[in-house]
Design a protein that fits this description.
The chain is mostly helical. The protein has 16 helices and 8 strands. The chain has a two-stranded antiparallel ribbon with strand order 1-2. The protein has a two-stranded antiparallel sheet with strand order 3-6. Strands 4-5 form a two-stranded antiparallel ribbon.
Amino acid sequence: MNALDLSRWQFGITTVYHFFFVPLTLGTVWFVAMFQTMWHFTGKEKYLKLTKFFGKLFLINFAMGVVTGIVQEFQFGMNWSDYSRFVGDVFGAPLAMEGLLAFFLESTFLGLWIFGWDRLPKRLHLATIWAAAIGTMLSAYFILAANAWMQHPVGYEIDPETGRAVLNDIGAVLFQNTAVIAFFHTMSASFLVAGAGVAALGAWFMMRNRQVDIFRPAAKAGAWVVLVAAVVVSITGDLDSKIMVEQQPMKMAAAEGLYETTTSAPFSILTIGDIAGDTATPLIEVPGLLSFLATGSFDGTVQGINDVQAQYEVAYGPGNYIPYVPVSYWSFRLMIGLGMIAALWALWALWRYRGKRNPQTGKIFSLVTPFIVLGPLVAMSFGWIFTEMGRQPWIVFGEQLTADGVSPLLTATDVWISLIGFTVVYGVLAVIEVGLLFKYIKAGAPDEIISDPYSGDSESDDKQLYFAY
């Protein structure tokens, strides 16, 4: 493979690895804030214990997300310098806002929350975790706005002398419909991931008859969040697909493997054969559903790959503008399917643990529950893969091809060295992350905790939790 292919692999691997931590961070911090708020207003110790338990898991995940996310910034200059030169004035603006505003907000208030348990007034300390949660949300928005600009570039002009993109409307970059819908879709999916994790952990402790009174509220709260988030994900996903059809019709056609323009286009749930050609055979189809997803009408017309390819050749010149269809097709379905499985499990869990029930758990439920968090997490990863791979061969849609964005002096040897290095380091970090999570999950919520961690008792067991963070 050449430097271009290796750079794409490296960026894809590091991005997907980093993204494993993002939705857990975005969603879990709100659970921590919610549990601490419930303890603040009710005074019930179980909510304080849940705050401490999920707070540890959140902080471990947050730290890993920060470490792996920094790598992405360096790759823009090291592997994709021509891209950075072309769009740096535009693409860099929301990223700078993320670092100077959002990340500063979340990291500062998170530090105050970690070390302020017996040093800050109770209400002020509660406010710090909510401020950190808002910071994580703002951070996500700025990053998604930058990515949305790559999908649908607006608010810029090309300098005729330098040939670079120059920002002329930051409002258009930040608040275009592509960015707004992507934000709500990503945030709701993050709540789906975090809700599944909280619910699964709560159910895991209940199945083992450990700290049932503490984890029952967590299991139910997580399951309800999953159900609500699944509804919001579906609504925002539908809106996102309609925007995608307007801005990137090739991506929707590739998601269905639709080669010819069709009216009342069906949505194929399962297809066999060569999806990258015309020999694929749909086994299960829902009539008219693709037209509804694309146009809002079951009788709507959906453009096929061949027609869109012809249009792009007229608009952008000769070339192959078709993404790798099998990746787009299957990632689109896995994104939807795995997320919905978590919603079905949440219904199942709420039924089993309704009221005060704690029945003996069946074998199937026992086998599924420990892994249920992986479903929506992998679904989000496939959604990200679909978003990026479906845009190919563009790195900035309609303006710059991916092949034109790679660093010109980069060699395959250079990328092989860094790719192997990142793989080894990330493998070690994965072992550390999983080991820490398992350690604190198995330990459970603290058995003994002082009723008022703001009392300033320097000899309390609670203060020793700082070292656990």
